[in-house]
Amino acid sequence: YPYKVATYAKQMIIRESNVTERSLVTRCNLINSVRSDNNPHGFIMEAFEIVENRDIRVIDRWKN
User: Fold this and answer.
1) Given this model, what pLDDT does residue 1 score?
2) Which residues, in sequence order, are CB contacts of 60 under 8 Å at separation 6+?
3) In the 8-state DSSP scheme, what is residue 40?
4) Closest CA to 24 of 59, 60, 49, 58
5) pLDDT tens profile 4-34
């Protein structure tokens, strides 16, 4: 405690002209809090940090 959390995500953005694959890595600490309708899990994120947010690749969709 506090709990250390890291998230790893990939996103595909599909457009008419291309497809972009993106990478997102974040980390933060979770501290206990009172549960409520607005916070059903009972945690608060603290020291949120974006470690990586970048394009992995872009694929052109135009036909030759």
Assistant:
1) 84
2) 17, 18
3) T
4) 49
5) 999 999 999 999 999 999 999 999 999 999 9
Q: How far is CA 50 from the centre of its chain?
A: 8
Count of CA atoms in the C-beta half-sphere (13 A) of 47: 10
Q: Alpha-carbon distance 57 to 45, whole Å?
A: 30
Confidence of residue 63 (pLDDT cuts 50, 70, 90): low
CA distance 55 to 11: 9
Q: What is the pTM of this model?
A: 0.76
- Report d(CA 49, CA 6) in Å as an integer: 10
